[in-house]
Amino acid sequence: MAKPPVLASLTWTDSRRFDVTSARISTVVDGDSNAGASPVQMLVIALAGCMAADVVDIVRKGRHALTGFRAEITAERAPEPPTRVISASLRFHVEGDVPPTAVERAIALSRDKYCSVWHSLRPDIQLTTAFDITP
Question: Are 118 and 50 in contact (CB under 8 A)?
Answer without folding.
Answer: yes
